[in-house]
Amino acid sequence: MRSDIIKQGAARAPHRSLLRACGITEREFKKPFIAIVGSHVDIIPGHVHLNAVNEFVANCVRRAGGVPFVFNTIGICDGIAMGHDGMKYSLASREIIADAVESMINAHKFDGMICIPNCDKIVPGMLMASVRCNIPTIFASGGPMEAGHDENGNPLDLISTFAAAAAYQNGKMSAAQLKTIEQKSCPTCGSCSGMFTANSMNCLCEAMGMAFPMNGTLLATSMERRRLYKQVATRIIEMVNMLEIREQLKNGKIAPKDAWILSREKDKNGIPKKVKITPETALLPLEIITNESVDNSMVLDMAMGGSSNTILHLLAIATEAGLNYSMKRFNELSQKTPTICKVSPSCNYHVEDVHNAGGIHTILGELRRGRPGLLNLTSPTVTGKTLGQNIDDYDLRSRKILPEALEMYAATSGNRCNQQGMSVRRRYKSVADLPLKFDPKDCIRTCKNAYSQTGGLAVLFGNLAPKGAVVKEAGVLPEMLVHSGPAVIFESEPEAYQGIVDGKVKAGDVVVVRYEGPKGGPGMQEMLAPTAAIKGVKLDDSVALITDGRFSGGTAGACIGHISPEAAAGGPIAFIQNGDIIDIDIPNRKINIRVSDEEMARRSKNFKAPKPRYVKGYLAKYAKLATSADTGAVLKWD
């Protein structure tokens, strides 16, 4: 075992002394050491319950035959950091998380790890660390928040509060109405209830093969998550043991006929199945996260109109994994992928509705039926099965679906304020018994009945974004898919928000928010407040917003981000002047400024990058090392 480096031999007696001080017993020195990589933080709703999850998973690992060691990463709540300079630390924290997890795993030589993230940058940060460390790893998120409801039973979420705040400041809502929405929008622990960045990434982990089915949709408050965590704990021990046997097989220490283990799965007679191990058995992150599995993740994101931030994070994960993956690939997949599921902020469905309609593997199942060949069904996953086999087991519309999947899909909300994870009992025996208030086949549509025959995300190119820009096409109103208008320029996100609520933006305009990229911001902060303000003042059907920053997963509307190169790097967005006409053509993937090449060249000669906003501390270091959004904004120093 990898952990033998710190626990075997006479030279490691001092190490064992220290481990004994942590409570490790003599028998446990012979067992796999498993890192429980938690992310409990009291100020993030998606993470307030994770201490209990950490403890539960640790106990499950112990019962499965491993020795668990819990540690936590930092986390930043994008919603609480929104609208002030705290948001500049959000994306930058992804690299801190990746570095911290890598440091802990490699310094202590763990045999395997279970990552328990939930919100925005924690998921990709841990994924980046997993490919760096490349030991058996499974992701098991904390689960999504329940949606809130107003007095009429209409669903509410965090975006409802942002829009209400803008409406109040614009005189279109009373203080009492705002207070009511504020109090009811976020009723429980869990990652915010729409298909924002956190839930998008947790769902993509399923398609990528790094998480078990239901990881991204089963509510944080549901007791059914305990069943999921038990499966994960048992499987991580299997994976570590299988890796040990695989290494012995490769080194000729055992014969192929002896390379097997008894699985956690049982046959019809209740006897554990024998699982054969070959040199090709995929057990490590770099064997699971491949170009094909990244494609699977992106296809899912396109199909469900997920967060545009997923492009940024997938590029970063691919870069860390040494994959050759470009932004142009996203457009290729988008042209083939129908949008068959829309979730808030693009419509009134929430993640809990997607779960009751059959979850991620039912979305993948519809893609398999309606677009044969689009998914890489032979891609390996942490379950020990291929993606196609997982779809067989968990697609609610499959004849092969497992009985336990029918039970777990029946998990519903507790309909009360609740900060205790894993606490709400399932009230219905099977998903077939649920008294749903919506049509599951509308929540997750067939490819034939898709919202759109192309994907929910698009990458635009043109003289304003030579290296690309990203838009969540699924969230754009039809009348805004093609738009031209004069630029109204703001040099920061707070300035843009205030300008919008003060009436400086008129119907037909294109709001430009620049110097908010990875270097210029620094930190590429999200633009949720300005976009929610546009919606709050009823201009979302006539105003577009473009930026070298990025948007929250909760953003909807004609909002184009990730413009590359960014303004601070001398990109064309730095040369726009108030009144310049911006042409946006999302169906044809174009974004241009109606200014001649000669005039743009003249403006570029006069360009001087502004002084760095930070000259000390982490953000100053980050700004020096951050790369463009088209490479995932990873750090480079060579």
Structure write-up:
It is a single chain. This protein has an 8-stranded mixed beta sheet with strand order 9-10-14-13-12-11-15-16. Strands 2-1-3-4 form a 4-stranded parallel beta sheet, covered by helices on one side. Strands 5-6 form a two-stranded antiparallel sheet. The longest helix is centred in the middle third of the chain and has 27 residues. The two termini are 34 Å apart. Helix 21 links the parallel strand 12 and strand 13. The chain is α/β, with parallel strands linked by helices. Helix content is 37%, strand content 12%.
Chain-wise SSE layout:
Layout: H1 4-7, H2 13-21, E1 33-38, H3 50-64, E2 67-72, H4 78-81, H5 88-108, E3 112-115, H6 122-133, E4 137-139, E5 148-149, E6 155-156, H7 158-169, H8 175-184, H9 197-208, H10 224-250, E7 260-266, E8 272-276, H11 285-288, H12 291-303, H13 309-320, H14 327-336, H15 351-356, H16 359-370, H17 387-394, H18 403-408, H19 440-443, E9 458-462, E10 465-471, E11 482-490, H20 493-501, E12 510-513, H21 528-536, E13 544-547, E14 559-561, E15 581-585, E16 590-593, H22 597-605, H23 618-625
Parallel strand pairs: 1-2, 1-3, 3-4, 11-12, 12-13, 13-14
Antiparallel strand pairs: 5-6, 7-8, 9-10, 10-14, 11-15, 15-16
